[in-house]
Specification:
The chain is α/β, with parallel strands linked by helices. It folds into three domains: 53 residues, 434 Repressor (Amino-terminal Domain) (Orthogonal Bundle), CATH 1.10.260.40; 130 residues, Response regulator (Rossmann fold); 132 residues, Response regulator (Rossmann fold, 3-Layer(aba) Sandwich), CATH 3.40.50.2300. 48% of the residues lie in helices and 16% in strands. The chain has 14 helices and twelve strands. β1, α5 and β2 form a beta-alpha-beta unit. α1 packs across α2. It is elongated.
Length: 340
C-alpha cells in the first residue's frame, strides 16, 4: 500500500508538505503542488479515511438510522434512504446505515467514535430516546419526523396533522357522517411514532369540528387482521360509510372485504388512503389519496444536516430548522357522496 511518505519521497518534498497539499490548509507554490499531485496520480495514492478524518476533523460520512421492523412500510423507508444517499453524494458525503434496533446506544456509539459528522434519524417517536443521546454528544442531527421536543436538532416531515384533517374534510364534504379510521398495528401506537400519532390527532380534531362520528381501529395490515378489524367496525357502527386507511398493507384487503360483503366502492362505502401516488393508482377503483413528496424528505434532511455541520465547523451555533411538507389530496374513483 502506497503511503504518504512514499509520495513525499517520490515528489522530493517533506511528508508535511504532501499533507498540506492534500488538505489545502497552507499555501504551497504552484510548482511544488504540481509535483505532489503528479506523484499522487503516478503512485495511485489514496489517503487513509481515518487519517483524513483526523486531519480535517471530518469523516465526510453521514449516519442514517433506518427502521427495519415489521410494523413499517418498507418501500417508503427505502425510497427515503435512497434519496438521502443520492443527496449526500452531491455534497461529497457517503452514508453509513445503522438499524434502529440499536436504539440510543447505536447513535451514541457513532457519535463517540467520530465515524460520522452528522446523523439522520428516521422512524421518529414523539419522546424519542435517541435524541438526548445526540444532544449529550453534541452531534449534528436532522430528523425525518417530528418529536415533541425539537431543541438542538433540525426536522423535516410531512404535515401529518394536516393530512388527517384533509381526509376528514373530504368525507364530510361528501355527506358522510359515520367514519372509521383504520390505522397501523398497535405496536406503532405503543411506541408513539410521530407520523401515526399526528395523523390520527389531525383527523380526530377535524372530525370533531365537522360533527362526524368516528372510531379508530389499529390494524396489522394482513388479510386476517383487516377482516377482523372490518367486522368489529361494522358490528360497532353498522352505518359506517366512510373509511380512512393509513396502514398501506390494509388497503387491498379492505377493498376485497368490502366487495365480498356486498358493499360497492364508492356507491356504498368511500375509501380514502394515506399512501404514495403509485400505490393509489394500482387499485381498482383507483384510490382517493393524501400524499406527500417522499424523496423530498431525504433531500431536505441532508441539506439540514449539512447546514448544521458547516455552521459548527465555523464555530457558529447551528439553527434548529423545521420544515413541514404540505400534503395533497387527489380525488379518484374510491370516494363519492354518502348513500342516502
Amino acid at each position: 500500500m502506497v503511503t504518504l511518505a512514499d509520495v513525499a519521497k517520490h515528489a522530493g518534498v517533506s511528508a508535511s508538505t504532501v499533507s498540506y497539499v492534500l488538505s489545502g490548509k497552507r499555501s504551497i507554490s504552484a510548482s511544488t503542488r504540481r509535483r505532489v499531485e503528479q506523484s499522487v496520480v503516478e503512485l495511485g495514492y489514496h489517503p487513509n479515511a481515518g487519517a483524513r478524518a483526523l486531519a480535517a476533523r471530518r469523516s465526510h460520512i453521514v449516519a442514517l438510522v433506518v427502521p427495519l421492523t415489521a410494523d413499517v412500510y418498507v418501500p417508503i423507508m427505502m425510497e427515503i434512504a435512497i434519496s438521502v444517499t443520492v443527496a449526500a453524494r452531491q455534497h461529497g458525503y457517503d452514508v453509513l446505515l445503522i438499524t434502529n434496533d440499536e436504539g440510543p446506544e447505536g447513535v451514541r456509539r457513532v457519535a463517540v467514535s467520530g465515524l460520522a459528522d452528522g446523523v439522520i434519524l428516521m422512524d421518529v417517536e414523539l419522546a424519542d430516546e435517541r435524541i438526548p443521546a445526540l444532544r449529550a454528544q453534541g452531534t449534528q442531527a436532522a430528523l425525518i419526523g417530528l418529536p415533541d421536543d425539537t431543541t438542538g436538532v433540525s426536522c423535516v416531515d410531512h404535515d401529518f396533522a394536516a393530512a388527517g384533517a384533509l381526509c376528514a374534510d373530504h368525507l364530510a364534504d361528501l355527506g358522510h357522517r359515520e367514519i372509521a379510521f383504520i390505522g397501523y398495528g398497535s405496536g406503532i401506537y405503543h411506541r408513539h411514532v410521530g407520523y401515526a400519532e399526528r395523523t390520527l390527532r389531525g383527523f380526530r380534531d377535524r372530525a370533531e369540528q365537522r360533527g362526524l362520528r368516528f372510531l379508530h381501529r389499529p390494524c396489522e395490515g394482513t388479510f386476517e387482521s383487516t377482516a377482523g378489524t372490518l367486522a368489529r367496525v361494522l358490528a360497532d357502527r353498522p352505518d359506517t360509510t366512510g373509511f380512512v386507511v393509513q396502514n398501506e398493507g390494509a388497503i387491498g384487503p379492505l377493498l376485497n372485504l368490502l366487495r365480498g360483503s356486498g358493499k360497492t366502492v364508492p356507491e356504498d362505502a368511500s375509501v380514502v388512503a394515506l399512501c404514495p401516488e403509485q400505490l393509489a393508482e394500482q387499485y381498482a377503483p383507483r384510490l382517493t389519496a393524501v400524499t406527500g413528496p417522499t424523496k423530498e424528505l431525504g433531500r431536505v434532511a441532508v441539506e439540514q444536516v449539512m447546514n448544521r455541520i458547516t455552521a459548527a465547523g465555523q464555530g457558529i451555533q447551528p439553527s434548529d430548522e423545521l420544515v413541514l411538507l404540505t400534503p395533497v389530496l387527489t380525488v379518484r374513483e374510491s370516494t363519492g357522496p354518502a348513500p342516502r
